[in-house]
Amino acid sequence: MDVTDSVAGSRQRVVGFADIVRIPLRRWRLVAGVTVGLTLAVLLYLLVIPATYTATTVVVLRPVVTDPFTLPAGGADRAINMTAENGIALGNDVIDSTAKILNRDPDAVREALTTEVPTGGQVLRFEYADDTEQSSITGSNTAAETYLRVREDIYKQQRAALMLSYDNTIKSVTSQRQAAQKGLPSDKSSVESMTPRTQAMLNQVSALNDQIAQLANARAKVASADLSPGSITAAARAPVPSSHDAALLFIAAALLGGLLLGMIGAHAREAMDRRIRSGEQAADLIGLPALGSVRSARNQEAAAAADARYVSLALLNWIDENPDSPLVILSGRNDEGRTAVTGNLAVALAEAGRDVTLAAAVESQEEVKRILFAAQKRTPPRPRTPPKPPKPGLNGSSRAPVSPAPGVTRVYGAAAGVASPGAVKMDPNATMVIPAAAPVSAQPVSGGGSPADSRSPLVVLIGGGVVRLCQLGDEPSVGVVVVDAPPSESDERGVRSAQDGVAVLVVARDRTRSGELSRLVDRLRSAGARTVGFVLTGGSGA
To answer: Where are the transmembrane segments (predicted)?
Structure first.
């Protein structure tokens, strides 16, 4: 392959706007499979997995202060560290106490309990998830109450420690005051008669009395403080939302999500799939012209035959210039419509008045016979004009009049509808005459009336021409030789036959892979075979 072919083969196909819809439609099985799979997964979740009920309890926190009415308006918010409170709510004390009350494992309670702290607020939301509605309500309320009790116990411990500190300080100051009072004189003397030492001791006792009074006042404020950390403002109660409440919404989301994922998968598969999508892409890849396009659907046989006529028109010049060279129809695989193209091409040449020898492998014989018999019904045989004297070909050789080989039967008559019942239609070139009323048989019959060799050609009259169907390798050089070559990926006979004639490639849209087509062209070029072009067939894309 030259540089031009290499560059053409490396080109990437541009996906246009029309492909956005066309690609998912062509790969509808993938889209449908993803959609059905995702929908079944959601249905399995809704039907098999039990619903999870989530109850929520709201707790409003308050700062624990001795005189909350004297705090500024914004001071209370900053008095509570919500991060610390959230940690206490999910701490071991709350979890263990809740698990003990609910008679459950602490790890299960920790997994089911979550807390939420709204930004800029003094609110804790306790959310508890469980399999039943009542258990979720009980778990949420119990966790909130346990948190408040644990938090109050912490405050009580802090108050007890603070009051103990006040008591110890008051006791110490009282001892100092008693010691100072012992140094005062016992008689009542006036201030003028007091000595400086006595006056100093009296001042010390007065100061200690003031300190004791202040400590007692501070202790009284601590003792009178409200240690409640907050209150439950919205206890959990039925009805409680569950994970299955939005079942219809889940199913609708699964359908839409499956369609979207399927379309994405279809486009991804298209981007990775190196298949031929158009005749222009095939021409750019192999550097050969397109001879035409033939429809390959079984319900479009008449249309496929009409398409093959245009392909035959493109090949007539080469056939006239090379009368002794076979026309080899080649494809990489056996599912690309090659046999249908070969049969319809032979039919088109016969309808144009040509004598055609069609060579096909054993596995393709039945499909070829079906095509030939269907064409015979569409185009009954016409009376053939006497053969003209042979003309020398362009290569200097002359061709003798076409005559069938011994033991060949021509099939015509009732299937062609050219004679009334009981009549006999004569053909000077036939070795056997079949009555018009006799049914057409696909089995060749010898001249003696007994079954002939299975390798004997089957002759079908179509229009003004003849198609001789024989096995591959046994074809006589009679008329235009058309070879239905086996797939090149598994059989080399097609490339070998193309060495003596010219190859016509069959490319199936949405089925033929770029690598397979490139390998087929490389094999033909390596063998020195000529390739006149390719025929594009319709494909559904597997």
So the answer is: 30-53, 246-268
Q: How far apart are CA 524 and CA 501, in angstroms?
A: 11
33-59: pLDDT as tens digits:
999 999 999 999 888 888 889 999 999
Give Cα separations from 166 to 158, 159, 488 (angstroms). Answer: 12, 10, 103
Please choose, from the candidates 492, 493, 317, the residue with its C-alpha nearest in 3D space to the C-alpha of residue 394: 317
Q: What is the Cα–Cα distance from 43 to 36, expressed in whole angstroms?
A: 10
Nearest to 159 by CA among 91, 224, 69: 224
How far apart CA 229 and CA 395 sit, in angstroms, is: 112
pLDDT tens digits for range 362-420: 888 888 888 888 888 888 777 665 545 545 544 444 444 444 444 344 444 333 333 33
pLDDT at 438 over 50: no
Token pair of 429, please?
Answer: 């070139």
Helix 133-182 × helix 196-224 angle, to 10°: 170
Question: What are 427's two structure tokens?
Answer: 């053909």
Q: Measure the CA–CA gap between 253 and 46, rounded to whole angstroms.
A: 13
Report d(CA 511, CA 307) in Å as an integer: 19
